[in-house]
């Protein structure tokens, strides 16, 4: 469904996020390090729709280098998840937003590498000037919401190492895996008014470390 980038879309997505019932963290959550990512909404490249920002991590990073990711990172001491997501969005892409721009939070996602990630949906605005930090971000991309609403945008496979399904998000000729794919998938489901859970969706083995 085409979503124009305007105040009506902002209100609609804020209402959908407010209607989404977040799931309480799992019992293992206290042992995990808190992290947050931003699902930052802005104008699509062609100016005719709404998109979210997706980055390709720098190849120089020690962890998960060169992987596709939503802007984000570990929460600093005393930070809330929205505060951490906004700080990371500024550090990685130069976008200075406030908590007034937060539309809602999705479910926490526990990773194999020991983090509990909170996705924070943020309205970045029509004139979002993106300046990637080369120390952290190799490239930044605007992914139209219509791309994640395609019937074949997501697929599920099994691996010998786990009984859980591995989720994949097809972007062009590439496959993006969990946790990023799982978070984007839940956002797609929220846009459709569905409370679909994703914490049980698996990551590929290369992302377990």
From TrEMBL:
The keyword Hydrolase applies. It comes from the Bacteria. Keywords: Hydrolase, Magnesium, Manganese, Metal-binding. InterPro entries: CoAse, Nudix_hydrolase, NUDIX_hydrolase-like_dom_sf, NUDIX_hydrolase_CS, NUDIX_hydrolase_dom. SUPFAM superfamilies: Nudix. One of its GO terms (molecular function) is coenzyme A diphosphatase activity. Residues 32-171 form the Nudix hydrolase domain. The keyword Magnesium applies. Its cofactor is Mn(2+); Mg(2+). Belongs to the Nudix hydrolase family. This is ADP-ribose pyrophosphatase YjhB (NUDIX family).
